[in-house]
Each structure stands twice: as C-alpha cells, then as structure tokens.
Amino acid sequence: MERRNRELRDHVELLQRDQQAGRLLQQHLLPRTPYQYPGGIEAAYRLNPSLYLSGDFVDYGLFGERFVAFYLVDVSGHGVSSALVTALIKHSIMHLLREKPCLRSWTLSTATCWISSA
C-alpha cells in the first residue's frame, strides 16, 4: 500500500510539473501588458483562466504602419488540449505574417475582407 501511494504521489508531481511547464509556455506566448504603440495607443488585457491552462488567448501588434491589430481566441474546452490549440493558432498567424509580408501593407478594409473570406 505504501509503495502504491508513493507511486501515485510521483505521478501527481509529474503531472503538476507538466501543467506548470504548459502554463509558463502559454504565458510566454501572450503579449506584454500594458504595451505602448505610436500615437499614444496603449494595449492591455487581463486573462483569468478557469483552469491552470486554458483555451483563452489574446494577442495584438502593429498591422501595417497605421493600425493596431487585436484578436481574441476562445477554444472550446479547458486544459492542455485547448492550450495547445491556442498555441497552434498563434503560430499559424505569426507564420502567415512572416510568409506574406504584403499583409502588413494592406488597408483595414482589405484585411477585413480577407479575414471574412477565410
């Protein structure tokens, strides 16, 4: 019985370390808050996940030279699987912006049309 309890404690500790590592990764992907943009624009957020890891995510950044782009992701569910989906979405958006630098020069209406058609 004592051996089984020790094994169970070891597994719980391993799961806790994995959750902590996932939370650190998720926090690392979030933008700085508050953040000052040119023209006196300040962006800030507060994210309160319902669990240690979540499918909620926010990001913002300069879009072209005139706009601050903002998006909010709310993946259905909770925990590691939802957190991984948000990381994939962030990676996909950053990859798209790197691969298609012309997106940065779009007007707001062009970007809105492109997002609506995707």
What do these coordinates show?
With 118 residues, the protein is of the alpha+beta class. It contains 3 helices and 4 strands. Helix content is 49%, strand content 24%. It has a two-stranded antiparallel ribbon with strand order 1-2.
Task: Summarize the entry for a quick read.
With 118 residues, the chain is α+β, with helices and mostly antiparallel strands. It has helices at 2-29, 80-99, 108-117; strands spanning 35-37, 41-43, 54-63, 67-78.
Draw up the topology in text.
Elements: H1 2-29, E1 35-37, E2 41-43, E3 54-63, E4 67-78, H2 80-99, H3 108-117
Antiparallel strand pairs: 1-2, 3-4
Helix pairs in contact: 1-2
Observed structural traits:
118 residues; alpha+beta; two-stranded antiparallel sheet; two-stranded antiparallel ribbon; 4 strands; 24% strand
- Rounded average pLDDT: 79
Succession of helices and strands: HEEEEHH
What is the spatial order of strands in the main beta sheet? 1-2
Number of helices: 3
Q: Calculate the terminal CA-CA distance, rounded to whole Å.
A: 57 Å
In terms of structural class, how would the helical and strand content be classed? alpha+beta
Count the beta strands.
4
Principal-axis shape: elongated
Approximately how much helix is present in the residues?
Answer: 40-55%
User: Could you describe the largest sheet, including whether it forms a barrel?
Assistant: 2 strands, antiparallel
